[in-house]
Amino acid sequence: MIGKWHRKLTYVFVILFTFSSAMFAKEEGVAVKLNGGLYSLVNIKQDTGLEIGNYLKMNTAIFTGDDFYARFSFFIINEGAHNYLRFPNFSRRLVEPSINYVFINMRGPLMPNGQPINMRLGYNNIEYSPYIAHFGDMYGHRGRGLQLDGLSWCNTKFDFFHTWEQTRDYWLMVQGMQSQFNLGKLDGKLVLIQHHKGDHVVDADGNIIELAKYKPYETSYHLEGEYQLSPSTSIKYLRAQQHLQEEKETKVVERADLRINTEHSWRLSYRDFEPGFDPRFRKRTPRYDLVLREDLGWNPVIQYQDQKGIELDFSGLVGSRFLRLNFDNFLKKSEPQQFRSILDLQLAGRTSYDLFVDYDQTLKEFRYREFGLKRSLGSFSFGNARGFFKYLNDQTGKNNRFKQVGTIADIGVESTVRNGFFQGLSLAMGLQHSPQGDNIYYLQGTWKVRNNFEIDFFHNTPTITGSEEALWLDDYGRLQWRDNLISCQFNMYF
What residue ranges do the domains of the chain occupy? Predict the structure, then answer.
């Protein structure tokens, strides 16, 4: 019952907000802005045909100066197949608006002559810690409530929030705070967050008819400090803990990093991520957004999940060539346990070399080996060209586009167009020898036009893979393509 009234009141608020925007716009000094975006994605597959996803999003904001503004965002049209753009209903076109977020932001002092702070009511956007407190984006949980930012005292900055999770209205309440401080050469941060679960009275249909006391069910903290040993050397320690009250379980992650930045960059890192560490409001962004074609970078909770190990990273000039080397030696603590060593080496130059090795010390065998080289063939009026050769051996069958166990050889030419009508077009063509002994001829390309239109295509003959995904990520976070795919995406912002 409460949930239904909450949704109705939200729609009423949006309508009143829209009309008030029009009225305020007539007054001098009050700015009303309306912008939006249109996104369309089309995948053309040889075996399954078309997959289409579209959305039209609008954003409205009222500005009455630097100290107050209000904003809401909503989708006008959502459509597609296979939940392609992560909307709840894609079996039909949705023309009725669906609210994305609503919030009001105010800035001013809490007391006369006090320091101004920001207060935000409505949709929360929290980025305190990727380990325990990061929500409000399209990948993780979302909440509505109160957010205070910018309180300071004695070289320490404080931020607070109190929110209700949107998954089930009024059932999950979250409170948290962040403090950041500086003590000379020491910078530190402390994040505390506690989740409460409502034990409400409901009717036969599951609607809340009476609110009851909230009970804590998860408490987490994040503590980190970085000490500057010298202008070029620093050491950093981080500890994050999740405690579940009902299960009486505590999970901990720890990291320590020594960094040296001179003419070369060095990093020596230790980590210990306990299996089962999964705070409800941790960062949940993937390594790569396969729909929007965005590289989001590694999420540390996913990258180092269940691992305990030591990592060495080096980058800098060696002679006249730029070298990047990463060596990672770790124990995978989840069952079955694996003790692995990964070496990633890249040497740049007119002829560049790449070496990647994953060795399983438990089984005493290589999981994956790859060696590659590229040679510049010269620059031309339209762009440049490079020849390449790659040899890899995959004993898992999960880290090559054929999804097969064995050895693959790849030789070809690639080029990037810098000028003319086809500016932004990247092409690669070549011959691959598959683990099953087949010779595969392929043409792969990406064409980006003014950041608004992109077309990606991959064609090979004969057809080998039977992957249903247009794109997929392997164990090392690398993008792999399926056979015979044309993918088009269009963005327009106004």
Answer: 1-38+60-107, 109-260, 364-494
Distance, CA of 149 to CA of 180 (rounded, Å): 12
Q: Is the dihedral of CA 428, 456, 407, 434 positive or negative?
A: negative
pLDDT, tens only, 143-167? 889 999 989 888 899 999 999 887 6
Round to the nearest angstrom and report the end-to-end CA distance of the chain.
38
CA 463 vs CA 50, 55, 242, 431, 439: distances in Å: 18, 33, 48, 13, 11
Torsion of CA 209, 214, 215, 217, to 10 degrees: 100
Q: How far apart are CA 79 and CA 89, in angstroms?
A: 8
Number of neighbouring beta carbons within 10 Å of residue 302: 15
Residue 33 pairs in a beta bridge with 61
d(CA 115, CA 148): 13
Six-digit token pair at 140? 């993780």
CA–CA gap between residue 361 and residue 341 (Å, rounded): 7
Backbone angles phi, psi at 188, to 5 degrees: -140, 165
- Looking at residue 94, what is its pLDDT? 53
SS3 sequence of 25-94: CCCCCCEEEEEEEEEEEEEEECCCEEEEEEEEEEEEEEECCCCEEEEEEEEEEEEECCCCCCCCCCCCCE
Distance of alpha carbon 67 from alpha carbon 445, whole angstroms: 48
- Tell me the sheet residues that pair with 376: 386
How many of the other CB atoms lie within 10 Å of CB of 492?
12
- Model confidence, pTM: 0.83
Rounded distance between C-alpha atoms, residue 231 and residue 262, angstroms: 9
With a cut of 70, which residues of the chain have pLDDT below it? 1-32, 46-49, 65-66, 77-98, 167-170, 465-468
Of 217, 120, 210, nearest in space to 170 by CA: 210
DSSP conformation class of 300: H
Beta bridge partners of 383: 417
pLDDT at 80: 57
pLDDT value for 368: 98
Cross-strand pairs, 60: 34, 72
Tokens read off for 4: 């239904």
The distance from CA 442 to its chain's CA centroid, rounded to whole angstroms, is: 30
